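Tutorial handout. Part one gives the primary structure; part two gives the three-dimensional structure as tokens.
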Amino acid sequence: MVTVACSNAAPVALPAREETRIDPGQLAGITTLCIDNEPSVLDGMETLLRNWGCEVIKAPDLALALAAISKSPVMPNGLLVDYHLDHGNGIEAIVELRRRYGDLPAILITADRSPAVREQARAEGIQVLHKPIKPAALRALLAQWRMMMASAAAE
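Part two.
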């Protein structure tokens, strides 16, 4: 048996915490081209990005990405590309897209953590996010794209 003394003390009221609000329009106006050979991953990425206010062009490979861009009324502002594609790899796709459309910011999404992939991406100026993707990390990189767009427009 345990005996505990009772107290008449009132609970301490803690100050209300201010919630950090994320401005959903912060990423509005960004158009991303997403390439992944897994349809469920593409659909999930599209849902996430659209919830953040982004426009999305999606394709399972480079050839269909080129076709989707040609049909789109807007050009992508950046590229989100999976490393493992059915034909070629994401770095090759990014290099070709940049050759055609200019030096677009790009993020390589990969489960491959080998130094060779990381070095090849770095040599091409491609940022790398490892799977599973943390939405906050992706959002931070997209916010950098937004700032680059704003500073380019101001010039």
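Part three, for discussion. Confidence is low (pLDDT under 50) at residues 18-22. Residues 4 and 10 are 17 Å apart (CA to CA).
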